[in-house]
# Entry
Amino acid sequence: MRNTVSLPADADSLKQLMTLQQKYIALLEDYNGLLLKVYGPK
# Structure
């Protein structure tokens, strides 16, 4: 088992992570909408 050292995230890394999170949430919402169109009430 490997020990991991937690390093403080710098502002740039945090900004990249937040941007990625926003893109991922948007993707999930679009995918959910597509599923509702395909498999939703008819």
